[in-house]
């Protein structure tokens, strides 16, 4: 019987800019009596990756433009935060009171470009975290560092919490991927009754990220790294970056 298990790495410390995140993960794994195994998949919360990479902005140092002030009045947000969002965005997709959806510089369509005050040191809301500048690159570097430290190169996913059209609530999604095929195009396969699939495409990376998010939590849980053990992606699919998930603008019905 095939089984897949998930467990959060316990007692992860608060990550600071410049920390060797991979080394911290290995240390906490060893302290818990665990080791990386071939085939493991690490799902890492975006926030700790951003912290380690120094993707933090102190709001007192932000220079607010007229564009940001005008948009802040529309969405009813701190003009400094709006400026940070604009600085890390390619385009504003939707804006109304309480909502600002943009295309973030790495290509992700999300609220506030992923800019977030929660779980950032200081507790006064005066420091915000941005998404990693290159999440796929971040995942690849962490994977390589884990291989150097342990001899095992697990797949690495970086996840973030995104909202979805037509549905309430956020879900963990993958924004960085290394060592795993993020998508499985199943067109041409057949169902139980012989019907040929013509439009089925499974987002493996998002499904794994969402599963890990159940253990990570959204507030004070302190479980930013989850190991998925036992899942085997289709062997014929090559690893690819998470940016392959992004729907081209011309195919996007919501723009």
From TrEMBL:
Highest classification ranks of the organism: Bacteria, Bacillati, Chloroflexota, Caldilineae, Caldilineales
Gene Ontology molecular function, alphabetical: coenzyme F420-0:L-glutamate ligase activity; GTP binding; metal ion binding
Positions in coiled-coil regions: none
Keywords: GTP-binding, Ligase, Magnesium, Manganese, Metal-binding, Nucleotide-binding, Potassium
Domain named Coenzyme F420:L-glutamate ligase-like: residues: 12-230
EC number(s) from the headed UniProt entry: 6.3.2.31
InterPro entries for the chain: F420-0_g-glutamyl_ligase (IPR008225), F420-0_gamma-glut_ligase-dom (IPR002847)
Protein name: Coenzyme F420-0:L-glutamate ligase
Leading EC class: ligase
